[in-house]
Amino acid sequence: IFFHPQHGIRYRSPSRGLGDVYKRQLLNEVVNLVDKPYILSCKFDKKFLEIPKEILIITMQYHQKYFHTLDQKENITNEFFVVANSKDPKGFVKLGNERVVDARLNDARFFWEKNKSQNLIKQISKLKSINYFEGLGSYFDKVQRMRKLGGMISDEMLISKDKVELSTSICKIDLISDIVNEFPELQGIMGGYFASSQGFDKDISLAISEHYLPTGLDSRVSKKPFSITLALTDKLDTLVGFFGINQKPTSSKDPYALRRSAIGLLKMILENNKELKLKAVSYTHLRAHETDSYLV
User: Fold this and answer.
1) Would you tell me how many other CB atoms lie within 10 Å of the CB of residue 220?
2) Rounded Cα–Cα distance for residues 140 and 128 (Å)
3) Please, what sign has the CA dihedral across residues 59, 62, 63, 69?
4) What does the DSSP assignment read for 265-281?
5) Closest CA to 55 of 119, 7, 107, 118
6) Handedness of CA 59, 62, 66, 69 (dihedral sign)
7) SS3 breakdown of the chain: % helix, strand, coil, rounded to 5?
8) 34: alpha, beta or left? (left if phi > 0; alpha if psi -120 to 50)
9) Residue 10: is its pLDDT beyond 80?
10) What is the model's pLDDT at position 233?
11) How far lies 137's CA from each of 68, 127, 133, in Å?
């Protein structure tokens, strides 16, 4: 039964009504870490279920190589599976892993409670301390450009300009948070949670959490108007900025993932059947870039 982690997890989960959600990459990695895999069923304190599920999942999967579980309603549970390299008759390995994950989740919970209460609007100026790219200023400069560009795109999309400008202004604030510093993979997602916890409109919170989408060819695409607009704004500002300072991809190199940004932008437009005057908007935004004092 325990010859392969996948079989072990599938054998033990149904009796608890749990789902065996895992990533193939994680499974393959764990298989190569052990010679004689044994599945240990462990638990963490239920108090940690109050923090965003993405924090729990990334802590277990990426940092500890554990397998989290979901209940029949697709909600994450406090039970997880550890693949050990030997049997654990006295339960010491299980206890040790539970202590490790509790410690990590306790730190994550502290960061979450601290960061979610920090006013997003008041932190915008702190983005001046984070350099975006030489020739393109700081992240503060980027969100100011995005604010103007988002206003133009909102007119094309026929949606509230004020809500778009607000979402562009605060969409990068999570970059200065402790939780994203600890878990960089959660940028954007945590920004959405912060906005939601502070009472921002649902459209704004969702747009912030989804503004990095799509992240690849197989990635899902935002479907809501404000999410689409913010994602397009971010990608278009990136493309116009880097091409404007002559940091173009070549046939063999694309260090700043500009092709991915361009493909994501087009995928967003095509899959949502939107019409956008890309050439006109890009040209206007380029002219705005040229007037910025930090450009050499």
Assistant:
1) 11
2) 5
3) positive
4) HHHHHHHTT----HHHH
5) 107
6) positive
7) 60, 10, 30
8) beta
9) no
10) 97
11) 41, 11, 6
* DSSP state letters, 119-176: -TGGGGGGGGGSEEETTTEEHHHHHHHHHHHHHHHHHHHTS-HHHHHHHHHHTTGGGG
**CA-wise closest residue to 11 among 32, 43, 39, 33:** 39
Q: Is this prediction's pTM over 0.90?
A: no
Dihedral pair phi/psi, residue 220, rounded to 5°: -70, 160
| pLDDT above 70: percentage of residues in the chain | 90
| CA 75 to chain CA mean position, Å | 19
Please state, in angstroms and as integers, the Cα–Cα distance from residue 105 to each residue in 65, 102, 147, 186, following that order. Answer: 14, 5, 35, 15
Largest CA distance in the chain: 70
**Cα–Cα distance, 52 to 221 (Å, whole number):** 22
* 134 in Cβ contact with 140 (< 8 Å): no
- Report residue 5 as tokens: 């982690």
CB atoms within 10 A of CB 97: 20
Could you tell me the pLDDT band of residue 294, with boundaries at 50, 70 and 90? low
- DSSP-based three-state secondary structure for 239: helix
Average pLDDT over the chain reads 89
pLDDT of residue 22: 52
| SS3 (DSSP) at 283 | helix
Label residue 272 by pLDDT band (50, 70, 90): very high
User: Per-residue b/e over 253-292, b at no fewer than 16 CB within 10 Å?
Assistant: eeebebebbbebbebbbeebeeebeeeebbeebeeebeee
Q: Tokens at residue 234, please?
A: 């971010």
- Both tokens of 177, joined, read 């948070």
pLDDT digits 0-9 by tens, 79-92: 998 988 889 999 99
Strand runs (DSSP E) across 25-112, as ranges?
Answer: 38-43, 67-70, 76-84
